[in-house]
Specification:
Layout (H helix, E strand, L loop, with lengths): L5 H24 L46 H8 L2 H6 L2 H38 L5 H13 L2 E4 L16 E4 L2 E4 L4 E4 H21 L4 H11 L7
Antiparallel strand pairs: 1-4, 2-3
């Protein structure tokens, strides 16, 4: 649907006003009388021809004020700068800050390489001792267990929803002083992932028991039905 701008509306109103004033002036002077004068229709000479105004096909589309732009990806250096206090960014030059960041990155990479070399050496030594019969089966099983528990895995805690409110019971779960929030992905050792999963299972069972749908509720109902039974 065509939409007129405010300027076009004003021009059209001004044209109608001028035409009306001209018709009234000519009617008062008695000029321009035609066959239509007696039926309330103004004479043709009293009608001003108005040139049609151009119509606007579409209004300019404005951005949605509620739309949020996607944040630009940040580099590790940008995150490092954002973590610094204001006085550090004001007093130190960008070259000094970048040099400190690059030195720390280099030292961290070297420390990681050192730890990985030590882990590779320890694992090679353990495998060699097991292959040559220098360790007992119990010691070999214990070593494999610890290796499996220290293996890095990804886990995303999903807390049970509360039927009455439609939300979760808590923002997250806390284990050994560390909070793991609902819906956030974490990279943790296998042992910690099993602890998180066990806690989530207990929370889910507690919510189901509260609603009368849990396994514990079913066991209690079964025990109540068997209370009159006596073993012979």
């Amino acid at each position: 649907m065509a939409v007129m701008t405010e300027e076009q509306k004003a021009r059209m109103a001004e044209g109608k006003r001028l035409a009306r004033e001209r018709r009234e002036r000519e009617a008062a002077e008695g000029i321009g009388v035609s066959a239509n004068a007696g039926n309330g229709i103004p004479p043709e000479s009293a009608v001003e021809e108005i040139t049609p105004l151009p119509m606007v096909e579409h209004e300019e589309e404005l951005p949605d004020p509620g739309e949020i732009a996607e944040p630009e990806p940040q580099t590790p250096y940008d995150i490092y700068l954002a973590s610094l206090p204001d006085d550090a960014r004001e007093l130190l030059t960008d070259a000094e800050l970048r040099q400190a960041f690059e030195d720390a990155e280099r030292d961290a990479r070297e420390e990681r390489r050192k730890r990985l070399r030590q882990q590779a050496s320890d694992r090679a030594k353990a495998h060699a001792q097991e292959a040559h019969g220098l360790t007992t089966p119990e010691e070999a099983e214990r070593r494999r267990f610890h290796e499996n528990m220290n293996r890095k895995v990804r886990i995303k805690p999903q807390l049970p929803f509360v039927g009455e409110t439609g939300g979760v019971e808590a923002p997250g779960i806390t284990i050994d002083g560390v909070t793991y929030y609902h819906g956030q992905e974490y990279v943790v050792p296998m042992g910690r992932a099993l602890d998180i999963r066990r806690s989530l299972y207990c929370m889910q069972q507690n919510e189901l028991d509260f609603e009368g749908k849990g396994r514990l509720h079913g066991l209690r109902r079964q025990q109540a039905s068997n209370v009159n039974m006596v073993r012979i």
